[in-house]
Automatic annotation (TrEMBL):
GO terms for molecular function: acyltransferase activity, transferring groups other than amino-acyl groups. This is GNAT family N-acetyltransferase. PANTHER family: AMINOALKYLPHOSPHONATE N-ACETYLTRANSFERASE-RELATED-RELATED (PTHR43877). InterPro entries: Bact_Acetyltransf (IPR050832), GNAT_dom (IPR000182). The lineage of its organism: Bacteria, Bacillati, Actinomycetota, Actinomycetes, Propionibacteriales. The keyword Translocase does not apply. Keywords: Acyltransferase, Transferase. Residues 9-165 form the N-acetyltransferase domain. It comes from Nocardioides panacis. CDD domains: NAT_SF (cd04301). The keyword Transferase applies.
Amino acid sequence: MHIERVDPLDLDLDTADALAEVFTASERADGPDLPVRTGPDLLTALQLGSDSRPVTALWVARDGDRVVAQATADLPWRDNTDRADVHVRVHPDVRGRGVGGDLWRTALSFVDGAGRSRLHSGAWVGSPGVAVLERWGLTRTSRGVIRRLDVHATPRSTWDRLYVEALGHAGDYELLRQVGRTPADRVEAMVELHASMNDAPRSDADDEPDRWDAQRLGDYEGAMAGRRQTLYRVMARHRGTGEWAGQSMLAFNEFSPSSAFQEDTTVVRAHRGHRLGLLMKATMLAWITEERPELATVDTWNDATNHHMIAINERLGSTVVATRQGFRADR
């Protein structure tokens, strides 16, 4: 086995294809039925992340010429600068040979050198990774749950009915749609809508709020565009005051056009209690399935404590496909 650190910006498509195969084989072995990861998808994710910056550090393990494992360490830089997120994936063919532990120790040495005191990772519930992370000295934090909506198996009448129900409580609001980047005259409002997500349930009480500004919004939207993740937004605005009240975002994966991922859905605190979350999400599903008929599934991630949003997703037809156990260690 040979481990080398690779600059994500120097990553070639052949290596990215091999890493995607490791990623997919690892998840298949661990239980989650998640969309197959492609090389271009993984390559752009490693190079652009969610803020137009590459993942901080990437290590690749090879058995001869074959790529068999990877590790990443990501160091937040805008906020939460005491935190590091480390993830290791090993192809099931070579598990039990120590390569995962070698990658983990390599990443930890990097994290310690960067002076980060909070280490975070995770593993799929029901997989060997849970016991491995506990053996490596991490403690369990909260859980994140992925639910999937099969848009072909869910009757369109479900979303129409829920839309009418929600509209009965939200007559003072209008809905607007947006595809792609935010126009200049809407940037300030969009920054506020993103910032309103900060009071959603969090997996770590020590996490600082995300500080949103125009630069961060531009970096996020630029990263998603570069990753070929087309952003669809449904936004709510109060008719009387013109105040922006909420948004729901969906990322359509152009590399795998049968799948999409639900990004943030948030309602500004002053406008809660009008079923805007349900209204926006029902509107989104009716829109996206008409706009992109090739779409088959929409996956969404919720903190297990976010009972309000979970209830909305389940009413829309989503069911659990995977649960991620979070872990933390203080260095």
